[in-house]
């Protein structure tokens, strides 16, 4: 009877742990930045991948001539996992500017979206992250996005 108890306990523990395990590529754990400039506007896109499998993504605007932060265009947070060179994002919260302008964080609106996947590549001794969206034939996707490592997490 005692052996049956230990067997059932071990079986229960094994069944609880395997389904929720997240594979996190440690090389991604960092803060990544992409800057684009359009006229007098600098758009800063940040990914922050953390070792516990969570991530944050923000898009902010900065006036190039004054250095003033204009606000947010998007904030996203969720969980991520990797399988080989595939990065899967599970979005928990996605808030955007209602008119694609840069607004204070409290003016962002929660929206529903799908969970994207990307092919990722680390280049330049791990200092550049390439993300290419995996899209269906009828989806409107952007091309490759390049992010530079700005903070190495340990």
Number of strands: 9
The CA-CA distance between the termini, in Å, is 47 Å
- Largest β sheet strand count, sense and barrel closure: 8 strands, antiparallel, barrel
Mean pLDDT: 85
Radius of gyration: 20 Å
The dominant shape is globular
Indicate the structural class.
mainly beta
Number of helices, where a helix is a run of at least 4 consecutive DSSP H or I residues: 1
Tell me what portion of residues adopts beta-strand conformation.
Answer: over 45%
Task: Describe what you observe in this structure.
- This protein is mainly beta.
- The chain has one helix at 2-18; strands spanning 30-38, 41-49, 54-63, 69-83, 86-96, 109-110, 117-123, 128-133, 145-152.
- Strands 1-2-3-4-5-7-8-9 form an eight-stranded antiparallel barrel.
Record the SSE blueprint.
Elements lengths: L1 H17 L11 E9 L2 E9 L4 E10 L5 E15 L2 E11 L12 E2 L6 E7 L4 E6 L11 E8 L2
Antiparallel strand pairs: 1-2, 1-9, 2-3, 3-4, 4-5, 5-6, 5-7, 7-8, 8-9
How would you sum up this structure in a few lines?
The chain has 154 residues and is mostly beta strands.
């Amino acid at each position: 009877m005692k052996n049956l108890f230990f067997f059932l306990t071990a079986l229960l523990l094994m069944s609880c742990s395997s389904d929720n395990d997240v594979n996190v590529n440690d090389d991604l754990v960092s803060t990544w930045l992409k800057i684009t400039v359009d006229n007098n506007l600098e758009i800063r896109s940040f990914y922050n991948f953390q070792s516990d499998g969570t991530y944050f993504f923000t898009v902010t605007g900065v006036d190039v001539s004054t250095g003033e932060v204009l606000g947010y265009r998007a904030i996203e947070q969720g969980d991520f996992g990797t399988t080989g060179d595939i990065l899967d994002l599970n979005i928990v919260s996605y808030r955007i500017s209602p008119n694609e302008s840069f607004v204070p964080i409290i003016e962002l609106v929660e929206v529903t979206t799908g969970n994207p996947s990307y092919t990722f590549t680390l280049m330049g001794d791990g200092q550049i992250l390439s993300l290419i969206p995996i899209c269906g034939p009828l989806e409107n996707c952007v091309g490759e996005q390049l992010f530079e490592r700005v903070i190495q997490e340990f």
